[in-house]
Amino acid sequence: MLPVVALVGRPNVGKSTLFNVLTRTRDALVADMPGVTRDRHYGFCRLGERHFVLVDTGGLADSDEGLAGLTARQVELAIAEADVVVFVVDARDGLLPTDQAILERLRRTSKPMLLAVNKLDGLDESVALADFARLGVANPMPLAASHGHGTLQLVKAIETLLPAGEPETPSGADEGGVRVAIVGRPNVGKSTLVNRLLGEDRVIVSNVAGTTRDSIRIPLERDGRKYTLIDTAGVRRRARIDDAVEKFSVIKTLQSIDAANVVVMLLDANEGVTDQDAGLIGHALEAGRALVIAINKWDGLKTYDRDQCKRSLERKLTFVEWAPRLTISALHGTGIGELMKRVNRVHAAANAKLTASDLTRALETAYAAFQPPLVRGHAPKLRYAHPGGTNPPTIVIHGSRTKHLAESYRRYLENFFRKRYKLEGTPIRIDFREGENPYATRKNVQADGQQRRRPRAPGKAPRGKK
C-alpha cells in the first residue's frame, strides 16, 4: 500500500493549488475564494523517489455548523487515514488564531507533521517565516505553490517522514474498472447515491443545492468487479449560473461525462424530466456514452404522482427510448443492486465485439427487408459493412449513393442492428462511405463510329461531306 499524505489548513491558503502542482494534474478546482473544496480529493505524487497518495481537503473554519461542520468531518477522516500531515498556512495573512486552533487539533492526533508556509512570492522569506515561529514547529517549508517554488524541497521533507519500507511504484494507481459518471441537476441525490454504493459517508450530503462543486473520483469494488465512481456537481440552466466557481464546476461535469464509460442520469421523481435533464442527456449522446436513466426519490411518491412521472418520461425521452430506466431510492437503497446490473449490461453492449462478415450478412438482411427510397430514380446500393470502433459501437457501411440516404433509413438500420445484437443502453453510430467514381474527371470522347451513328438534325450533312 502506498503511504497517504493529507493537506490541511484554513480555507483559501492554497491547498488545492499545491495538490495540482504535486500531482501534476488539474483535478482540483481552484478559485480565489474560500470554501471551494469541500470533499476529499485523492491523487498520486510521483515527484520523488517515494510515491505516495495525496489528499486535498476542505478548509477548516471556526464554525462547526452546516457545511463547515460537514467539511470538518471530511478533514478529520483524511487526517485519520494519513501517515503524514502537511499543515498549510498563508504567509500573506500571517499567523491567525484559526491556525493555532488547527495546530492544536493536529498535535492531538500525534501524526508526523510538516508546516508549509505558502504564498511567499513577493515577500521577505525570513520575515514571513519568523511570524510562524510562535507555532513551535521546526523547519517550516517556504512555498509559492502557484509558481512551483519550494515544492521539490517539500516532497523531500515528506519522504523523510513516510513509514519505512521499500520504495513503491503506484502500479495500481491508475484508475481501473468501469468509469461511471453520476450526473444530474443540483439536489437530485447524486452524492447520496455515491455514499450508498460505497457504504460510507465519502462525500458531503446536504439539502443545500450545489454542495458538490468538484468532480470526485472514487474507486469501488462490488461483486468482484471494479468501478470508478465520479460524483459530479449539479448542472443548472445557463441563465441561472452567475458564479465563476459554478461555471468551472459545470465544465468539469461535462469533462467527466466525456471521460466516463457509462453515464447514470439521475432524475428527481418529484419534478420529472426538465429541459436541463434533456440537455445533459444530449451531451452524453454527443460524447457517445452508454446511458442509464435512474429516477430517484421514487419511494416518497403517491400513485397519481408516479403515473404523472411515467408519462413525463415517455413524452420527453423518446429520443433515448433504448436507454434502460429504473426507479431507485438512494436514501434507502432501493433498486441499487439493479442499477449496477444495468451499468454492467450497457457497458458490455457499448464494448460489444462485432465482425465484418456478420455485419455484412445483417446488412443484406436489413436491405432485403426494406430497401431505401429511390434517389433520382436509382436505388442506393449498400454493399458491405465492418466495425469501426467501440464505446460507442460504430458500424461503417460502404455503398453507392449513400450521401442521399434519408435520415429515416439511418434510424431503421440503427434499430435493426440494435435489436439483432441486443445493444441496450448505448448509442450506435453508422458511418456511410461511398467509393469515388474513377471516371468522374475523364472526358467522354466518342470514337469515329459513334460520331457517324450519332443522330443529326434534319438537312445537316455528315461531318466531312458537303
CATH superfamily of the largest domain: P-loop containing nucleotide triphosphate hydrolases
- Number of helical stretches of at least 4 residues: 13
| CATH fold description of the largest domain | Rossmann fold
Instruction: Tell me the number of structural domains.
Output: 3
How would you sum up the major sheet?
6 strands, mixed
Tell me the distance between the termini: 102 Å
Radius of gyration: 31 Å
What is the name of the CATH architecture of the largest domain? Answer: 3-Layer(aba) Sandwich
Q: What strand order characterises the main sheet?
A: 2-3-1-4-5-6
Summarize the helix and strand pattern as letters.
EHEEHEHEHEHEHEEHEHEHEHHEEHEH
Strand content: 15-25%
CATH C-level class of the largest domain is: Alpha Beta
Give the fraction of residues assigned to helices. Answer: 25-40%
Mean pLDDT, all residues: 84
Query: Quick one: how many beta strands?
Result: 15
Low-confidence stretches: none
Structural class: alpha/beta
Shape descriptor reads: elongated
